Amino acid sequence: MNHAAASWASLQAIRQGAPLVHNITNFVAMEVVANCLLALGASPAMVQAEEEVEDFLEIAQALVVNIGTLSSDQLAAMRRAAARAAALERPWVLDPVGAGATPWRTRAAAALIDLKPTVIRGNGSEILALAGAASGPTRGVDSSHGADEAIDAARQLARSSGAVVAVTGEIDRITDGERWREVGNGDWRMTRVTALGCAASAVIGAFLTVDPEPLRAAAGGLAVFGLAGERAAAESAGPGSLRWRIVDELASLDEAVVLEGARIA
Amino acid sequence: MNHAAASWASLQAIRQGAPLVHNITNFVAMEVVANCLLALGASPAMVQAEEEVEDFLEIAQALVVNIGTLSSDQLAAMRRAAARAAALERPWVLDPVGAGATPWRTRAAAALIDLKPTVIRGNGSEILALAGAASGPTRGVDSSHGADEAIDAARQLARSSGAVVAVTGEIDRITDGERWREVGNGDWRMTRVTALGCAASAVIGAFLTVDPEPLRAAAGGLAVFGLAGERAAAESAGPGSLRWRIVDELASLDEAVVLEGARIA
Amino acid sequence: MNHAAASWASLQAIRQGAPLVHNITNFVAMEVVANCLLALGASPAMVQAEEEVEDFLEIAQALVVNIGTLSSDQLAAMRRAAARAAALERPWVLDPVGAGATPWRTRAAAALIDLKPTVIRGNGSEILALAGAASGPTRGVDSSHGADEAIDAARQLARSSGAVVAVTGEIDRITDGERWREVGNGDWRMTRVTALGCAASAVIGAFLTVDPEPLRAAAGGLAVFGLAGERAAAESAGPGSLRWRIVDELASLDEAVVLEGARIA
User: Fold this and answer.
1) Run of H or E residues at B183
2) What is the pTM of this model?
3) What sign has the CA pseudo-torsion A189, A195, A201, A203?
4) What whole-number distance in Å separates Cα of residue B56 and Cα of residue B52?
């Protein structure tokens, strides 16, 4: 089965099984993440109290952790949830938003990486910061480094952490430390809408529930999400319309569109 | 006055009086709840600090409590607010999102029910969990039980709590423990947009400010909200468009549409 | 350079420089604030943990503080961030949402004003409450006083605080305690969409990064935001469409539109 066919098979499996994806994410992203997961066919839950995250993982099929608007309370819940996910052998995704911007944030991301995420998805600046390779501070949540510069850092981080690392940018580059996948889907206008990177991470979480191979799941999720985004961008007058059109597109992707449109190499 | 005419009268009263509806709700829902209340004609406020919720109820006309992304801090504020609402004889609505999914969440919802909500609105799984009738764990925030199965549970919960209980689903069923109302408005596609159930609960809160009869207010609010949703769904290419069209529809409902469209029995 | 030309020059500078605007804002507003700043050309960040707000200001070019869904933890972070902004001579904007609604909220806003905001933007009720001139409690977050009634209060608050004070309403009135600007852009339908006032405050924050003169920056930001809003309102069937169209309009404003449309006197 080629890459596009594998992506379509996973999307079908998500639509049929409606996997429960447990998100501990930032307050800017919560709504668009939930609506993108619903449009994909998954069942999103946003549960973040320390008192219940471990119990909730008993019924969830994947966990997605995103540190965009991190607090110390949320970090404590994330650590509990990630440890439980590992114990239960649930796949989990780390989105280290803004790693490198402040020392506290970088340390928080590093502590989460110690809990063995299945996939880490970030922009070039974030991955460079996490690999200890950044030459200067990152600029908040928007990437100031291209994905290309981060290739060495991604390989290094994948090897040291055991995670599949996805560096998203004009071309998304995904590695398990040895093998590489490249995804050419997406559109630059997606970077003008907040939290679409967070939504991409959540989509990877959904793909991990139906595909045991993280490298393939990450590539498939990014291809499907990017394909919805490029179709939405083509019809949109601006970022306001792109934001809701991508949700419509995610819900309406069909076999022909995915087989012809997914660009994974 | 028939049911549809009563719904229209309440909607007019909301538009004329712009009642202040105090919400302590989840982070996914906050924005769509606020915009649905504004579109309805009410004045929403999201105030959730323990230090001020009691004072805020002095000026609010109803309270809506939603446990979707509950934290212990938020629960403490909810308990204070609910107790004050009861003391001030303000109507209040409980939306027990995800009750049954974890023991902590179920206990939190039960503790809030002890504070005498006017109306409890949930899906079948949540109402079954709260009535102690669930045969297994619920599946997060999406219902895994039909509304029909929850009829006995709703009656039991209404009698034990003193609240009007609304179980929403393909047909919404509402009871005070003796009488029943059924609302046939809505569209299945509304379940593919996050937090529209939360918005329905908030709309019930607004209806309670202009109608002293909770059974009628809950039915009227669900009919008006469902009517806006079905009109939005008919024009929408997907869940992304449905989400903003329902806000437009709420703001533009007129007498003819409500009198012809509200399906309450 | 006339007022409209100055607004256009600032908008161009924002688009070229993509200034990093640090927001500590309410949970209802976070998403629309981030998307409005991105559409304007700025780079938004929502960072609110006490552990990192001071460090983050090292890289941010302005700070925007909004108390809409205030908690005591958030207030502590706001105070640290505001003090650091003052120490680093970064401009900062205070949006005192709901000041006057509860004593705790009014005291919190007053304590923030002691930390020397560059600009305070509020509706008439909020500015009256903060100037100690309100004759009664405000009604939550919607203004129950017109902007006209708040003129004396704005002058008084500007003089006592050292901030530029902007009272937004049908006509926005902005003062440094001596001089006044009036902005005639905007549309009443913008008041039916939640958090657009919060977004206006954030846009002022972006303008402050490219214009050292706070009176002119506040007027320019309000004119550009109001212009986008009135253009969006003209095309919108209701508040649901207005909410995304204003984002599209912010991203597409060009020189001719701003020079002809900005109404600053």
Assistant:
1) strand B180-183
2) 0.95
3) negative
4) 6
Q: Which of A74, A97, A104 to mutate to test the interface with C (most CBs of C within 10 A)?
A: A104
C67's tokens:
């108390």
User: In angstroms, what is the C-alpha Rg of chain B?
Assistant: 16
3-state helix, strand, coil in chain B (%, to 5): 55, 15, 35
| Chain B contact set for A34 (CB, 8 A) | 28, 194-195
Considering only the beta carbons, identify the residue of C104, C195, C237 that sits closest to B248. Answer: C237
Chain B: closest CA distance from residue C133 (Å): 19
Alpha carbons within 13 angstroms on the beta-carbon side of residue A161 total: 31
Let me know if A94 is exposed, middle or buried by CB neighbors in 10 A (0-12, 13-18, 19+).
buried
Phi-psi region of B235 (alpha: psi -120 to 50; beta: other; left: phi over 0): alpha
Which amino acid is present at B215? L
Architecture of the CATH domain C3-261: 3-Layer(aba) Sandwich (3.40)
Complex ipTM, two decimals?
0.94
How many CA within 13 A on the CB side of residue A22? Answer: 29
Query: Residues B84, B118: contact at Cβ < 8 Å?
Result: no
Residue A89: both structure tokens together: 């052998």
- The alpha carbon of residue A92 is apart from the nearest alpha carbon of chain B, in Å, by 18
| CA-only gyration radius of chain A, Å | 16
Residues 6+ apart with CB under 8 A from B167: B122, B123, B124, B127, B147, B150, B151, B153, B154, B173, B174
Q: List A residues 217-256 in contact with C (Cβ-Cβ < 8 A).
A: 236-241, 243-244
Residues A203 and A66: beta-carbon distance below 8 Å:
no
Q: How many residues would you count in chain A?
A: 265
Structure tokens at C158: 């500007």
- Whether residue A72 and residue C52 make contact (CB cut-off 8 A), yes or no, is no
Domain ranges, ordered by start, for chain B: 3-261
- Phi, psi values for residue A184, rounded to 5°: -100, 5
Q: How far apart are the C-alpha atoms of A36 and B29, rounded to whole Å?
A: 15
CB atoms within 10 A of CB C76: 12
Tens-level pLDDT at each residue, chain C (265 residues): 799 999 999 999 999 999 999 999 999 999 999 999 999 999 999 999 999 999 999 999 999 999 999 999 999 999 999 999 999 999 999 999 999 999 999 999 999 999 999 999 999 999 999 998 444 455 555 565 555 678 999 999 999 999 999 999 999 999 999 999 999 999 999 999 999 999 999 999 999 999 999 999 999 999 999 999 999 999 999 999 999 999 999 999 999 999 999 999 9
Report long-range pairs for A33-36 (Cβ below 8 Å, ≥24 apart): A33/A64, A33/A66, A33/A195, A33/A198, A33/A199, A33/A202, A34/B28, A34/B194, A34/B195, A35/A247, A35/B193, A35/B194, A35/B239, A35/B240, A35/B243, A36/A199, A36/A202, A36/A203, A36/A225, A36/A246, A36/A247, A36/A250
Residues C99, C84 contacting (CB under 8 angstroms): no
Q: Spell out the residues 6+ positions from residue C105 whose beta carbon is closer than 8 angstroms to its own.
A: B52, C67, C70, C98, C99
For residue A136, give the DSSP letter. S
Which residues of chain B make contact with C198, given a CB cutoff of 8 A?
none
| Three-class SS of B23-47 | EECCCCCHHHHHHHHHHHCCEEEEC
